Amino acid sequence: MPSELPADSVGLVSPQTAHFDQPLMLACGRELPAYDLVYETYGQLNSARSNAVLICHALSGHHHAAGYHSLDERKPGWWDSAIGPGKPIDTNKFFVVCLNNIGGCNGSTGPTSINPATGKLYGGDFPVLNVIDWVHSQARLADLLGIDVWAAVIGGSLGGMQAMQWSITYPERLQHAVVIASAPKLSAQNIAFNEVARQAILSDPDYHGGQFYSHDTIPKRGLMLARMVGHITYLSDAAMGSKFGRELKTDKLNYDFHSVEFQVESYLRYQGEEFSGRFDANTYVLMTKALDYYDPAAAYEDNLSQALAQAKADFLVVSFTTDWRFSPARSREIVDALLDAKKNVSYLEVDAPQGHDAFLMPIPRYFTALRGYLNRIEL
């Protein structure tokens, strides 16, 4: 933590909790009788309530997107490089809202919440979620905040899917959709990666059918493996090569199966260990399933152009050359469908070596384009 807050930081921020008593019917056919959403805001809502921007988080994200919770916090929010005074998502201009989605493990109602029907933690009994469920809950938060229309809904990866779904489900309620490093639906390969990650968790003896809380344990091995698999797909071969190469952690090879010999092995184990201590296994399973299920074209005769024809927003779509999890070809599918539906769309393909994780990084060309697009929004 720096001794002084940077001038372009939103500063010290506090999460807020919104409680909703109105039941939420979910796509799976089950209902949440009541729920909480934890969120943060940055900047000021103008008198016309026309400058609000919604940030949708990706798989392991949460509400803390920018600023610091305390002067002791080591790192700022997960997208602090993009949100703040003078930054691409400029809080001198916009009122920015970011929430932890239902099913999350950072304060919003999820597997670690009490199931009112049983008086016990939901655990593995929490309902299966779909992206549209999050969009409906976000719309209710917008109602609570007095926001009729978002100036923009912005998201990367799974967040980009939410931005797309907003444009389809609530076309009158957003002016711009910014879809970054995303896809109109997962490929078979992506579903396969998610299934391997889920099976690592579900087959862990400490998972206990998702009720591990009452056993005073966590499926740590499964969650570590799931994160390791995921992390491999978030980085490009070039990024891994430049970061680790074949560098050894030890002075010599040990010729056994248990030693951590290569730097990349050490890195993956560290990432898995750190993640297993802060993220809920049931939430990971829920989030990956929501990714798998996302397919907005399914309700429109499998025609993405028909689905996006509902939209009234303008679009910015961004992809990254070395992102093989959500490749530029998948972004171009979205762009082609938008053009076919006669929508206004700007597209940027950024030459970046970082892989899927590039959407979180302050790459100059990417941030220049994002800033330029958002600066043109008339409030």
TrEMBL record:
Pathway: Amino-acid biosynthesis; L-methionine biosynthesis via de novo pathway; O-succinyl-L-homoserine from L-homoserine: step 1/1. GO terms for molecular function: homoserine O-acetyltransferase activity; homoserine O-succinyltransferase activity. The keyword DNA damage does not apply. It is an enzyme of class 2 (transferase). Keywords: Acyltransferase, Amino-acid biosynthesis, Cytoplasm, Methionine biosynthesis, Transferase. It is found in: Cytoplasm. Residues 51-360 form the AB hydrolase-1 domain. The keyword Coiled coil does not apply. The active site is at S157 (nucleophile), D323, H356. It catalyses: L-homoserine + succinyl-CoA = O-succinyl-L-homoserine + CoA. Its EC number is 2.3.1.46. Substrate binds at R227, D357. GO terms for cellular component: cytoplasm. It comes from the Bacteria. It holds the Pfam family Abhydrolase_1. One of its GO terms (biological process) is methionine biosynthetic process. The record marks R325 as: Important for acyl-CoA specificity. Homodimer. Transfers a succinyl group from succinyl-CoA to L-homoserine, forming succinyl-L-homoserine. PANTHER family: HOMOSERINE O-ACETYLTRANSFERASE (PTHR32268:SF11). Belongs to the AB hydrolase superfamily. MetX family. This is Homoserine O-succinyltransferase. It comes from Atopomonas hussainii. The lineage of its organism: Bacteria, Pseudomonadati, Pseudomonadota, Gammaproteobacteria, Pseudomonadales.
